[in-house]
Design goal:
- This protein is of the alpha/beta class.
- It has 19 helices and twelve strands.
- The strands form three sheets. The chain has a five-stranded parallel sheet. It has a four-stranded mixed sheet with strand order 9-10-11-12, sandwiched between helices. Strands 1-2-3 form a three-stranded antiparallel sheet.
- Strand 11 and strand 12 form a beta hairpin.
Length: 569
């Protein structure tokens, strides 16, 4: 059964902590009073086995007494006051004598075997190890389809019954005291799918795992989100009254070398805060065009410089407030804003997932939401949830595409659980059945667009400048599904890198780049090639990637300079 009687202030988390990996069990103080608790089944399911195994002779009963200091309550419960005992099902354990356990009697929990049958979730050890992308997919088809179809679905059914039990008075996302149960559920399912190996899986693997991991919680959240959008909770009132006005009517703009995350984030944030979404450059790459037209069905935002009050003053001679999205480096800002001497007065907000640069400052307080997540669009999605705001399916699909793009389909090392959860939630909100397929089609569209650009645009399409300790360096990235067409013109790309270093100086030697690199990323094989254009770049790359082999960028390439050989390109 899932009911226990314990003192009202004894939120007994000792076993929950120990089972989660702690090496010791902390004592808790019990005070007077009596309250009913709706206990977390995941942890209570383990308690009988632990007590019976470690403390022979003690009975396992459904109630515990108030304990003196320096003792431990062996239970983990979520408090919920009820008027009276619910009807006891026939299968419930009969009442047993109450027990008091001294802390010294508690055994080392991690050494005690816990039967998988005592848990309502599929044990991680029953999953086949991922040995390679192809063999893993075969095993998933042959083994997991059978195993997960029986046990994982049964577990989901158990959780569904727990959530809907007791006339919907137990386990609600709207009740903060019930959140530990949901968090434990997420941890359990995440552990099931945390299967790693020497070779990362192909594109669908991580996204499929994210969808499976969070699908059950997402399904419960959808109803809550819809309800709260119609009837907002008090925290949404606070956000809308005291936080959101700072960004109301702002112009949202991303960085130059525009990518999908900066476009989607600008559109999503502008719709949330009642502002204007803009793009920093006229041309958008093939991936962005595909996501806008084929997936989200959203129109391109206007060019920043063409919106009155942005690149030029409006009819009243004034400039609009600006919120930066997906960047904070001055060199990455749209040119008209970067060269505006009053730009730090105009910038009132920043939504980003990059490190705060040395060049960023403000003349007045501003609203900043900067999180260490894999995509800025994940932050925007979180803002919608926090504000109890309605999100159109079109916006949900666009934000989902942006997260998949920035995290390389959830396979990048920068990917976090927040991004994985956001993809699952946004896919549900946007009605996307197969986000993995969407990602593959986006990457394919981007590759086709890239190979038709020519070397000049390939080097400058997704390129950013950075500085550290007085050194200036440029990083360009090409994300493709096939490297061959790119490396065929490696000699021209390297020449463009050398030209770019001088070009960035604008005629002033002191402003030229000290380093310029181009990463060619194979998003299918999950590997990268770094093109080296000079001896200085070679020295830095050798120090940055020790043990990484160097070679010719193309079999027929010649040494691009006197300080570097063809074998070092």
């Amino acid at each position: 059964g899932y009911r226990r009687t314990v003192p009202s202030t004894t939120v007994a988390t000792a076993i929950g902590t120990a089972v989660s990996g702690a090496t010791s069990v902390a004592p808790v103080q019990a005070n007077g009073g009596s309250t009913r608790f709706a206990a977390t089944p995941l942890i209570l399911a383990r308690a009988p086995a632990i007590i019976q195994q470690g403390l022979p002779g003690h009975a396992v009963g459904p109630s515990f007494t108030a304990l003196p200091p320096k003792t431990v309550v062996v239970a983990a419960a979520v408090p919920q006051v009820v008027a009276e005992d619910p009807p006891q099902p026939e299968a419930m354990v009969a009442p047993q004598p109450e027990i008091s356990l001294d802390a010294s009697e508690i055994p080392q929990v991690e050494e005690l075997p816990v039967s998988p049958e005592s848990l309502a979730f599929l044990p991680a050890q029953e999953l086949p190890a991922r040995t390679s992308s192809r063999s893993f997919r075969k095993m998933k088809s042959a083994h997991l389809d059978e195993l997960e179809a029986s046990k994982a679905l049964e577990a989901a059914g158990n959780f569904e019954r727990q959530v809907s039990a007791d006339n919907e008075t137990v386990y609600h996302l709207g009740n903060r005291e019930h959140w530990p149960h949901y968090q434990e559920l997420l941890k359990r399912v995440s552990d099931i799918h945390d299967v790693t190996g020497e070779n990362p899986g192909e594109l669908e693997t991580e996204t499929d795992h994210a969808m499976a991991t969070y699908s059950k919680v997402v399904s419960h959240m959808l109803a809550s989100l819809t309800k709260h959008a119609r009837n907002p909770k008090v925290e949404a009132f606070v956000e809308d009254t005291f936080v959101n006005p700072a960004l109301k009517s702002c112009v949202f703009v991303g960085h130059v070398a525009t990518d999908l995350d900066s476009i989607a984030g600008a559109i999503g944030a502008a719709e949330l805060f009642g502002g204007i979404a803009t793009k920093s450059e006229p041309e958008l790459n093939g991936e962005i065009q595909y996501a806008l037209s084929e997936v989200a069905h959203v129109e391109e935002p206007p060019l920043f410089d063409e919106v009155p009050g942005c690149g030029f003053a409006d009819e009243a001679g004034e400039f609009k407030k600006v919120c930066l999205v997906d960047h904070n480096e001055a060199k990455q800002m749209v040119k008209s804003l970067r060269e505006d001497k009053d730009r730090m007065k105009r910038i009132v907000g920043l939504i980003d997932h990059h490190a705060l640069s040395e060049s960023f400052s403000s003349e007045c307080p501003l609203l900043i939401d900067l999180r260490p997540w894999g995509s800025m669009s994940s932050i925007v999605a979180h803002m919608y949830v926090r504000s109890n705001a309605h999100m159109r399916p079109e916006v949900a699909r666009l934000l989902m595409c942006a997260i998949l793009s920035d995290t390389l389909n959830l396979q990048s090392v920068t990917t976090t659980d927040a991004d994985r959860f956001a993809v699952a939630l946004l896919a549900a909100l946007g009605g996307v059945e197969d986000p993995d397929q969407t990602a593959r089609l986006m990457f394919r569209a981007k590759t086709s667009w890239i190979v038709n650009l020519g070397p000049y645009a390939m080097v400058r399409g997704d390129q950013k400048d950075f500085s550290a300790d007085g050194w200036k360096y440029g990083i360009a990235v090409l994300e493709v599904t096939d490297m061959s067409p790119v490396l065929e013109v490696a000699d021209q790309l390297i020449l463009e890198l050398r030209t770019l270093k001088i070009e960035k100086g604008g005629g002033a030697l002191a402003n030229e780049l000290d380093f310029a690199f181009l990463f060619v990323v194979d998003v299918v094989r999950q590997c990268s090639v770094l093109l080296i254009c000079g001896g200085r770049e070679y020295a830095l790359a050798e120090a940055a990637f020790p043990g990484c082999p160097f070679g010719k960028a193309h079999p027929s390439i010649k040494a691009p300079g006197r300080t570097i050989s063809a074998d070092q390109t």
